## 1
Amino acid sequence: MRSIRPVIAGNGLAIILTVVFLLPTTAVVAFVATGPIDDFFANIGIWLHRTNEWSFPEFDTIERFSKIGFAIRAIFIAVGISFLYFWISNWLNMGLARVSSRGSLGRQSTIIEAIQPWIFVGPALVLLLLFLLIPAFSTLSISFQEADGTPTVRNYAFLWDESALGYLQFRLAMRNSLMWLILVPTCCISLGLLIAVLADSVRWGIVAKTLIFVPLAISFVGAAVIWRNIFAGGGIEAQQTINGVTPSYQIGLLKALLGHTAEYNEPLYNLKFWGNFFLMWILVWVQTGFAMVIFSAALRGVPQDTIEAATIDGANPFQLFFRVKLPQIYSTVLVVWTTLVILVLKVFDIPYALSANDDDKLLLATMMENARNNWSIGGDNVDNLFASIAVMLMLTVVPNMIFNAWRIRREQKELGH
Amino acid sequence: MFPTPIQQRSRASQFSYQVFLPIALILWLLPLIAVMIFSIKPDGDFVKGNFWGLPSSFEFFNNYGRVFFASDMPQYLLNSVFITVPTVIGAVALSSMTGFALGVYKFRGNLLIFFMFIAGNFVPFQILMVPVRDLTVNLNLYDTKLGLILFHIAFQTGFCTLFMRNFIRALPYSLIEAARVEGVAEWKIFVYVVLPLMKPAIAALSVLIFTFIWNDYFWAIVLTQGPDAQPVTAGITAFNSQYRAAYHMMSAGSIVAAIPPVFMFFLMQKHFIAGLTLGAVK
């Protein structure tokens, strides 16, 4: 076997080199060669423009149509290059193995099998390294640097310096993140379980579940915008305040129902401290559907005979649920919980879209974006503060990551893989 | 059997259940209903303060016409399509290949690579933000759809590979062995034996990734700016600042932005749910 290693390495290197040189060249050639297609599309555009007498400038039409042409050929070339990669690497792998094995079939298949997985993994691995692994470590190293590259721990010290502004903000962000971490998954899971159980016992439960599930398909920003109507304060801010007129009605439905007076025109999510809960509710609204779907699938998987046995023994519905069903779907609850925890740690869109600059509503994620955009308060220019916040955020995820890796590994072992 | 079919319970609890549930459902969907009603109201209703009353006239065509013909919305929507579709194709293609390699071959580094993909799945994207942004600027891909697509593919392959690997592991391994005994080349096994069996996983994953990417906001604002390359999620905030305080336009805009993923969800509901369950339960 020892003699075969260099052969494998050599073949692998040959394949890598061929791919690295051949594919970009082919791509460039293909792009240049198909250039006229853009003009062709532009001509179609001009023809359409003239026959339909569109009102906007002809230049826009040309630009738009040639862009469509570009997009189409980009897609075709990308697909072609992918096939070329797959074909060339496999062909080379087999061809080189045949040549270098000197006629021994056993050696030949050993060589092929050693290289084969890397052909499949290769492209994804390159992307993963380039866009994930290297950036993550470079953020880590940035967090220990000044803007000009001199090593420092000031970025972290700033977060613990009581006289600095970052001190308070970081603490608020930690407090809010913790609240989100505890409340959002808890609410999603309890609501999801409740709905999954309740909806199973009515005939139109499927319709109800579908409707509850719909928010999951809407983006966080979309959800934030949609809920703003409900939580909004009074008046039409921009126009009315310029004219000096106090708004005389409540826009937000909830505030109108709560009986807030017209003078009090702050949106509910701007309330000090309590505003956080309105922001959280938006995420709960979006994610409950996810928890519900998973739980209802898991509940359907609970063995019927355990339920029947409990019923015969006279268990009431609550005992049945908490003592029989819930323990059996416990692992699913755990999976959903970790998924939601990670989601919450990453959540950015909702607080950013609604109250980006409010210290009281900061999360680690939004604080980091703020630090990146404008961090020069009171002469404290801590340019790379964002990196240290990002590292702190990463540190909060790591335990979860390890737990999940361990869980997946254990499940794999149980399944005998 | 529990839950007891509601028909077998007492009349009172049956009644309260059947009244309570629709009310809860309406409350749940209230923001959506509100935004729909807002989107067909005339401008005048909001000036007069008629926010929650009935619309004084039906302005569906007017409002949505303005979204489609007098704003950048169509451009944003088109960008979203051009970003989402290639990402879905790329991520699914790459992950079925890596999933196959990690699920079928026993090779050195298999486990290490697998855990790298899992870790990639959990990394908070904020830690990548600035270096990735610098990278795209250096590669001349900043503010282009291609940059966004490449990054999305890289970021999604973590989840997709996990998904695909688990699915392939659950396939009967004897099929692959049988093909090997017949002397079928490895890539042919992948294309002709494994890929056809992966159709349900591919469908589920595509629908899932489609909504993930379509709804992405963070990378849209980090890696792109302006209507040339930005997808509709970023477009909606630009749209909102353009129509500040014009609630009917903002509502119509957000409905237009939400329609494709919601439509996709209703169309492919089975696959969507299958994807979520497969991804989470395993």
## 2
Amino acid sequence: MIECKNLKKIYRNGDIETAALGGVTFKIEKGEFVAIVGPSGSGKSTLMHILGALDTPTSGEYLLDCKNVSQMSGDELSDFRKERIGFVFQSFNLLPRTTVLRNVMLPLLFSGISQKEREKRARESLKYAGLEEEKLYGNFSNQLSGGQIQRVAIARALINDPAIILADEPTGNLDTKTSRVVMKAFQELNRDGHTIIIITHEKEIAEYAGRVISIRDGLIENDEIKK
Amino acid sequence: MIRDLLKEVLQSISANKVRSGLTILGIVIGIASVIALVGIGQGAKNSVAKSIESIGSNLIIVMPGAQRVGGISQGAGSSQTLSEEDAEAIKAQISGVAAVTPAVTGRYQLTAKGNNANTEVSGTVQDYITTRNIKMNIGSFFSDQQQKSSAKVAVLGPDTRDELFGENVNPVGQTVRVNKIDFQVIGVTEAKGGSGFGSEDDIVYVPLATAQHFLAGNNYISNISITAADQNSMTSVQEQISSLLLARHKISDPDQADFRIMNQNDIISTATSVTGTFTMLLSAIAGISLVVGGIGIMNMMLTTVTERTKEIGLRKAVGIRKIYINLQFLAEATALTFFGGFIGILLGWISSLVLSSFLSITPEISVSSIFLAFSVSTGIGIVFGFYPARKAAAMNPIEALRYE
């Protein structure tokens, strides 16, 4: 389902060229739970940006469901992200002074879907992500607890029923206990058949995944499938 | 789509009420001053036109041309070239003329009951009240008989009466001394309004023959007022008068004419074009404040875009297209200026009403100026919101998301 062939990303700063990715090749099947680990500066963030269609590789191919993402234009990438990718960002990035419901509906803006349908989908998505209390839906996002914020972020990622859920350091700003709850939530999503890719530098977090791809200096160092 | 856009705009404007309010203040003040100034200017223009129309209707005035002494012009009306015979010839020979009234004017020292005044004295004929649209307040105007017999009678303008006899006093039967000659007051005209140049309230009317014999001492006249039968015949009457007087004065080249003919429409258009130019100038100055207001909008939008970098990154990451990011910020700027324009129009309207109550001018705020104000304020939003919106849309989502 995901196929990366010899992905390279080279940043150019004046005359100095830095290879963030030096040729990465791997496949991820539908329903897998993958952790991409590596120290900072290893190129894992660059890889995540390419997998999330936020960026395109300098060379190589990235295919998602047989669609070549590497050659897409800006608007095509936008539409692709909207339809196929659910992001869960580090620190979750909810809109402040905006209600829970509106936060979850954000990816549906300018989509032509009716307001009623949007709200219905947002409610379903929130319930699925484990935020049951409807009375919270009208609250501003800055009035929620850390665990609740993370569930809203997951609900937002799920609203378009994406092909993959991409989480960038989802536990980066959380204490150990909340981290455990978050990771359990991802495991549940995976059990329901969602493909999940988590980027992290913490080995303990990677333990929750079924497969760990270690990256170092822009290259795959180790690709290990557990159990 | 549009609903989404409006919602987003409303959300972000209301999230920063104080800042949004302060930012649109520039637009509010700019639009308000343009609306108020144009309204008052238009009102002034109307009142000037109205006061000129009050002189009389379908009026044509013939005045002597400028006297030249050694090639130096002494100013219009300085030469003594018009005679009573000219006036009679116009009356007798030109068709489409309703009334012809010659007048001789001069400034004299007046005394009455120990009070002094220096006032214009106009010697004229009875028809003058028709051509100049004069109404009597007290008493009557002098008759043809009194005119022909050089009777020493005088009709006072209301301001002159106030000055010589006191306000609202009936001076009929009293004596006013002009140039050491006693005149009996027989009437007071109704106030016409207007002041300074062309005021017909500070004046004394005496019979033409009397003025020529006792005051001027010659038979020349200062102007001839002609009332055309109707609006349409004015041009033809004016042309006929011109050729008649040229023939009578034995002048072949019209450029050398020793008289000037003005019609009321010319006077109105000259006077209103002056107020019009003035209004334009003031509005242009007010327009500058609009540009300053627009820069304020741009400044605020740039701040907003920077402040919301992370949010813009998020929007882009979840797949909202560039064009919608652009539209959202453009719509935000435009909504601010549109709203500012709306308040500005109201404020301008109110302030022009308040100002005009001091100026005794009825302001005229036309639909077209309101429409223009709306389009200008909206246009400012588009122009000054363009760059910030483009900046927001061009952001790289990865960098925007990392922004702290």
## 3
Amino acid sequence: MDSQLSRRGFLSQGLTGISAAWISAHWPAMLSAASHAHRAAQSAAPGKFEFFSPEQAVEIEAISARIIPTTDTPGAHEAGVIFFIDRALVTFAKGDQKIYAEGLPELQAKVRELSPAVAKFSAATPEQQDQILQSLDEQLPGAAGRPSRRRIAAQSFFETTRVHTIMGFLIDPDSDKRGNRDGLGWKVIGREPEHMFQPPFGYYDKDYPGWQPNPADAEKTKS
Amino acid sequence: MMLDQPKYKTTDEVDFVIIGSGAAGGILAKELSGNGFRVVVLEQGPYLTEKDFVHDEIKVINQDLLTNHPELQPTTFRKTPQDKAKPQRALVYGRLVGGTSTHFTANFWRFHEIDFMERSKVGPVAGATLADWPITYADLEPYYTKVEWEIGVSGLAGASPFDPPRSKPYPMPPLPVKSSGVIFERAARKLGWHPFPAPMAILSEPRPGRSACINCGFCLSFACEVGAKSSSLATAIRMAEKTGRCEIRPNSYVHRIELDATGRATGAVYFDARRNVQRQKAKAVVVCANGAETPRLLLLSASKQFPDGLANSSGYVGKNLMLNSGGVTTAVFEEPLNDYKGFAVSRVLHDFYELDPDKVGFHGGGGLDARFDMTPIGFALGSLPPGAPRWGKSFKEVLSHNFTRTCEIFGHGTSLPVENNSFSLDPDLKDAWSLPALRLTYKDHPDDLKLSAWLNARSAELVEAAGAKKMWAPPVQEQQFAVHLLGTCRMGNDPKTSVINSDHQTHDVRNLFLCDGSSLVTSGRGQPTMTIEALAFRAADRITALAKRGDLSA
């Protein structure tokens, strides 16, 4: 059964959405006023935003950075996921513009509810941020199973951001999607950057002696 | 590259118009044009070539670069004819020159003798329309060999003790073994089973104009950028073009086959890229549009002469659909397999091809394979163990640990033909051309579900014997999404219970032929494309003989 094809769609198909991009702005300059300014300074590939305002970008990037955090290995921030999401929202994921536009104010309302002393999501501590996101994550762990082409993806704001962050982290860096900067996402999961490989591929086929026929006892194993 | 081709006028009455350019259509185009006939192939999708075949998962999978579009071609699903069908994506197939053969896994198992004569051997099965084929394995054997040699299949003859007889070895050795294959082979041997190198329609050695597999790792769902996957695009279509008698006409969406007053097909009516209606005249029509679109086209072509659909005097057009049964068991191992490198499958086994219904309590059989067919995004979103975190630090840890250490055991098995399981025209929903949409009606025969569970149990035994650190499998569920599209215009000697005869000629219209997954009488054990291609080679011989005898006129 090759219905593995059926578990391949991982995002809602494009729907009609708001057509006009909001605002373009130069990322590093605008960010200098924001709380993540120190990170922006490290940003390897600054570029213009096609959809987000700089303020929005700061918030979305803060969410992405909790979905795939920077640990002893690079995370969504280093892989430039925010640029991927921004490009996605004016191209293949145009239909999700509304989810972001409506989701961000709701996120901030949640911030005020759970952490009244904090002005906005990006200003919260990582622990507070995780707690806020947890409250938005309606899906129970493990409930998802393999995504399927026929499933209409969900698409709460958090789920959309989660899926876009993962996509932006792991997309083929040679694509035109601005994600997986320098192939960092692939490096993190252990996928070598090449598109051409030779055996041996892994640990178990290293010392494979070559295929040998089984002793001829075929008949007895017929059930 | 797209080779120079003749350009026929729609008013030229060519010898054959072939509808669809996939596994069957490509081979029929090659063979019929090679036999001296003038051929036009009408393909609804675009003519893409190697330069278009990128590894961008979003473009290829989410945006359906190679596949049918749910927005343009919406579909509906219901379980039984009593239900009202609801809109949902119900199937996927290749929608480009080369069809589904461009993006498939390329498992190329021959059917065995049993697949052609199961009804005689096991008797009737309650709730199923199980029937014998009008041809046998021996009739098809030379054509299986032809597929292996002309289209390009790698494998090791004689490696499986369960294999049917063959007249020639494979033309090239098997592909290299993957870590998943080694794990599978060792565990299966421990259990007394008979693993063997997978026969794959992927080149292990270069052929003129085509590279051997470079193990890029973007195989299933992706089309091959070096021509190593033996799709119709990389093989038969180009051979057809070289004859100088075959025109491949992409972006041509056929929606009607017309008849003259004598009941003879006169050609195909289609929308061109600008959605203008065109009529290609032809002396005979060959439909190879796949097991969903072929019956749909016949149903769309209903007329006064055929009020229930063209060539549908049996009432069987669209019915007896078989999707194949099976299941997936995922396993994580201690050390890196790096199975993301390479094609999907390197080892299979056929010990369970023919199960004894008296012993197992159901009808059917199947095989197992070891594979990794996921690409990075799909893996991160869908292949972590149940209960794994979906975001955050521990998600990242599990993802980073598992990506290189995961593989899957797939069970592949029979589906019994059930009359109610079908593709038909949805009475309400229309596609972007205002044509009735495809409606899938499907409820697995209970034996198919039992078989799937039984195969899952064997996969679990195997994974345990292999010493996996972790394993899981989703429970068996009724299917509601179609990939393998089989049996919907079945072959048979009796016009009351079949749509085509053993020459692939419709019982009702002498110069109308059907050849694709719809022709199959039984489902095989989960890998149908090899048989579809062998049938296409054979159909080309039969059709050529009929045409040369002048038997296609009314």
## 4
Amino acid sequence: MKKSELFFLLIFPFLFFIVSHLIPLFYGVALSFTDPKGNFVGLQNYYTAVNDHRFWGGIRFTFIYAFSTAALNLILGLLIGTFINQIRRGQGILKSVFLIPWAIPLTVWGLENRIIFSRDFGILNNVLIDTGITTTPLPWLGDPSLATISVIVSSVYRDMWFAALLFLVACQMIPQDFYDLAVIHGASALQTFRFITLPLLRRTIITVGTLLFIFAVQAFDIPYSLTYGGPAWATHTTAMYIFRRSLHYGDYEVGTALSSIWVLVIFGLVGTSFTFLGRKTMR
Amino acid sequence: MNGRKLVNYAVVVIVTAIVVGAGTYFAIPPKEVTKTVTQTITATAVVTTPPTTPKLAGKIVLYAPAWGVNGSLDLVKLYNKERPDVTVEVIRGPSVWDEHVTRNTVWMREKYSGVDVLYNDDVFTLDGALGGNWVKLDDYFTSEEKAMLTDLQQHFMNAHGGLYRIAWGNGGSYVYYRKDLFAKEGVSPPKTWDEFIDVAKKLTKDLDGDGKIDQWGYVTQGTPGEMYNTYNEFLHQAGGDEWKLAPGGVPDPTAKKALQFLYDLEHTYKIMPPGITAIGYTESNAMLKEGKAAMLRGWGDLGATIVSSWGMGDVIGAMNFPAGDGGPWGIGHSWGYVVNAYGKNKDLAIDFVKFCFLNIEAQKIMAKAYEAPAIKSLYQDAAFMADLAKSNVAAAHFEEFFKWRFPRKFPAGKSVEYHEAYGREISRALTGEASIDEALIAAQKAIDPLLP
């Protein structure tokens, strides 16, 4: 292919990228330096943004949520994936079943979970009381700590199956000979997992863990539909606060300043993660 | 010229066109199209069918969130009898407040022209009036016509800086109660805070003896926006001012008393279910309906739902709030039509809202669809009020209730953030994240930058 042909072939995707991504991005950044009338105000919106305790509260919860969900998804996904790998029959059906929660839209999932976690009408409290685990219904969404747990559990219960599927696929890439040898040498199931499965899944674990963390940092849908960020500000993620500030309060300028800060944080995280990922997986 | 070269040339032309087109679009601001009002429509001072007006034709777009759609459709039907050549397209909006907020905020901010009439509440009427989003309707009505409005509506006109909304009616928050449970316990609707606690305690019960409460004395809504309303009601009952929670960082004694009272309902007297901050309308309404709560704070539309959807008009009654030192205050509010100042069909939109205001049948439709009449004369219409009482359990008490309904003090242009931040900071006292004093100080700190 000639250079000129390649140029014309690439110009459309390039223009599409410019129009759809970079123009809004730069427009947003430009907006963060203005007041609602369009006057340049320097760093005033950034000053307002960094002095907003709700923004910092959102960052705090976002990281608690991201670390918890990434870690739990990783651990549970790994365990389920390797367990399913042992099953010889019905794997295909299980794989399809795994994807059901993951295929449900996030907001629908959040709303469904509101019914589950409801104090007076929820299934969870009914089960806990019927089984004698608790005597009184717990305010799963009305207490800050319980609401944090509820949001994390709701998210993990949805996403761990997807992580499990990724680990299942990775497990199936490990040559069967290794396991056969382990059996010949009398290794226990735990030893096989510890000395064969885990080391050989290391790259997958790092990659999946990093991706899960990056996805979780951008959390919006589940906390929004499950708790609206409440009680008070307890489960308010950064993305939710930016949304609220911009589209509920009509404060686009401070909202875009918050977004710009948050984009930089996420870029930093993604950059660091992938550098780390590159080093670890290259070894 | 071979085919390949032709394709190359074509690509160059298309790309240039896109770049130039995009550049032009972003560089040149769209011209604002202005219309001159040429139609003069006279109206009578007496509420009656509007006078014959010149023939109007065209189309207007009316937006209403889900709860304003049915009434709007009835109004459009009536309007079309008068104006058969005007098409009113009713856009059904979201059924969730949060989504209504997002849509309105973006439209107002972007000066959206695709909608001519919007069904809005106090929050957006005020913010839009200040932002120049709505048409000021004062000049389209005589002072006699405006004087027909109730005191609550007069207040809103003052608060908004003029007549910006054609109110569907007077609205308010009330206490609904299970008459059957009250009768069973032999108690009457409480009039004061002390009586309220006493009655609610008697009605809070472990019915099956398993050690857990099956029936609560009282339930309210504690989600952020509603926590603002719930607390604000107690604050007014205590005689407080919603802008003075902790002026200068010192908690106001009345504000403290009100928040302590709300806290005690859940944590000390335990007459309200724990985790109230997660209880919204769906859950609290269901609790009253199923007899899991004996008293419920709710808006006036619930009075109609109780009759029409639940079929429990004979079991559930409405009463005023209990009085603290300040009186039995509840919130007075209103929804109604505003005319988009940036709309494409302003003349027709104004004609439509004028019709809604001046036509007595339209007023009746609005009052029935909403809650209570917005004009004084309908309260004197015994037949209409009797009819209204059949469809809303609160209606029989409207005259008494509206003596004790206060309009909320939204700071102009900041109403959404104000009531949401307020509610969330106050909630922290109920969730145990902050003490009463800390929550009040935090709420004052959150609202101070928003106040005029």
